[in-house]
Every structure is written in C-alpha cells, then in structure tokens.
Amino acid sequence: MKSNSWQDLVATATLDTQTSRPNISIIIPVYNEEENLENLQARISEILEEIKIDYEIIYVDDGSRDNSFMLLEKLAKKDSRIKLIKFRKNHGQTAAMSAAIDVAQGEIIIPLDADLQNDPRDIPNLLDKIAEGYDVVSGWRRARQDTFITRKLPSMMANRLISSVTGVYLHDYGCSLKAYRADIVKNVRLYGEMHRFIPAFCALEGARVTEIPVNHHPRVAGKSKYGLSRIVKVFLDLMVVKFLGDYAKRPIHVFGTIGLILCFGASLAGVATLYDKFIHEVYVHRNPLILLAVFLFLVGVQFIMVGLIAELIIRTYHESQGKKTYTIAKTVNLPSNSNP
C-alpha cells in the first residue's frame, strides 16, 4: 500500500535507528550567488524544521569568483547538516548536480537553484507526490517570473520539442525544483549539460514521472547565468538523448538503416545512369549521376561500418564494466547475490 503524504513517507522511510541517513537531500549548485545564500539557507531551514524531517543540504560551489564559498563555510560551521563541495573551476550546472547526487545520503533528492527563484515551501508538495508512489516529481513554473522573449518563449519551444522527442510530457523541463527517489536518480550518469533531461533518463529506467505546479519568484539579486545560446545546446543534447534512449543498445539499427538507404539511392542513380547510356546514348563519363551513385554507395558503406564499430564498442562497454543491458525492479524468493 502506497503512502499518501510526506508524513507517512518519513515515518516509513528510515527504520534502522543505527544509521544516520537523512530522509531527504537538498542539492544546490552555486555560481556567484553571494547575495542570495544566507536568505536561501534561512528559507530552506525554516520549512524543513517546520515539517520536522531529517535532512541534509549539499551546496556545490561551481568555481564561483565572488565570496559564495566563504559564506557557505560560515553557514556550515553553524549547522553540520550543511555539506559543501567546491570545484576548482566552473564545470557547469550538470557537473555540480552530478557531484551532489553522488554524495547525497537522502532517500529523496531535491535540487533547487540558488537564486531564490525556486520556493523551498514547495518541498512538502513534492514529497506528497513522491509518497503517492511516483519516482520523479517535476516542478512546473506555471506563473514564471522571467522575461518572455529571452527566457519564457525559448523554454516553451524547448519543452514541447523535448516532450515530443522523449515521450515524457512535461511543461517545464528547465525547472530545477524537482524530487527524485535516490535509487532511481543515482543510476543516471550525467554528462555535458544533460541535467534538464534527468526526468527523461529516469523514465528510460522505468521510473514513474509526474509534475506539479510550483511557485516562481523574480530574481532580486545577482545575475542570470542563462542566455539564448542555450537553445543550440538544448537541441544538440536532445539529439544525444534520443540516440541514447532508442539506439544506445543497438546502434547498428540507426547507422545501418542510414547506410542501406544511401546504398539504395546509389543503386537508383546507377540504374538511371545505365538507362541514359542504353536508351539515350549518354556516355557514362558525361553523366553526373554516376558520381552521385559512387558517392552515395561509399558513404552508405561507411555508415554501415560505423554501426558495426559502435556495436563492438557497446558490447565492450557493457562486458568490461559488468554492466547489464537491463534493470531489475524486484525479485521474489531469490537471494540478493543470485540476481542475474
């Protein structure tokens, strides 16, 4: 039977009193946000103390050039539940979130931004939804407080594109405020700028994904780190997500299909060349179709060979690291060490 509130979730989540594992981990990437950190920490602590839940807060300083880390150190000295990670240089939001997820001890992991635009008072609502049996709960900034042309419009277009390509329909992939079950999100490996696609990656692992409306506040201090340049990055990352989702375990299907189509086109061009030769008496060396036929055939063969090489790489990857091509949700009457 599923719990239906965060109170039930807390009551049943950690039964081993000999461990100090928190119920939730709040993870926060930080880059030049010194003006917001103290206020942010106060708001988070207020709501988490109010709902009486065991927690930890993990800040990742992503190579800030201001006094962000100094302020975080002061906060951490006052509260041992505040954990800090400092990068030597700026690696980006995805790397910061990945580092925090790797060290998080909570059974539920909740990321949020450091700019005070996400509202910590939405955390209980996210936990309520998790308690209903969902593995991923995504925040939806329905009343988003950002400029329309540079922020909201590109985001709306990106969300529709991502939803149609991945098959995971969310209104707001870009909202950092989400809740994940740790056993799901810790299986997701993040590279590049893939953090916005975490719900889609979790869905590939069989996670139940939903979303709820959350509050969103205008930025009052500091500067936004996003611009229109991210549109190109989102599109390129989406191509990777689509490939990983549909063809990561069978790359020959995509490369081989393209190769066979090109070879078929080469055959058509070759037939057209012969037709012109014998029917219209057009010499082959004067017919540009022969060049097209040779070009398409060579490129088609190369695509097929790339697919074969990719198949070998995928098999080497899984076998060398002992990785399975499947994930198991549950077993019955099997010892843990006998799982296939």
Task: Write the topology of this structure.
Elements: H1 6-13, E1 24-30, H2 37-50, E2 55-61, H3 68-78, E3 82-86, H4 93-103, E4 108-111, H5 123-131, E5 136-140, H6 148-166, E6 178-181, H7 182-185, H8 198-204, E7 209-213, H9 230-247, H10 251-279, H11 288-320
Parallel strand pairs: 1-2, 1-4, 2-3, 5-7
Antiparallel strand pairs: 4-6, 5-6
Helix pairs in contact: 1-5, 6-9, 10-11
Structure description:
- The protein is 48% helix and 11% strand.
- About 1% of the residues have low confidence.
- It has two domains: 242 residues, Spore Coat Polysaccharide Biosynthesis Protein SpsA, Chain A; 70 residues.
- Strands 3-2-1-4-6-5-7 form a seven-stranded mixed β-sheet, sandwiched between helices.
- Helix 2 links the parallel strand 1 and strand 2.
- It is of the alpha/beta class and 340 residues long.
- The chain is elongated and about 90 Å long.
CATH architecture of the largest domain: Alpha-Beta Complex
What is the assigned CATH homologous superfamily of the largest domain? Spore Coat Polysaccharide Biosynthesis Protein SpsA, Chain A
Structural class: alpha/beta
Shape by Cα distribution: elongated
Distance between the termini: 27 Å
How many distinct beta strands? Answer: 7
Q: What is CATH's topology name of the largest domain? A: Spore Coat Polysaccharide Biosynthesis Protein SpsA, Chain A
Poorly predicted sequence stretches spanning 5 or more consecutive residues: 14-18
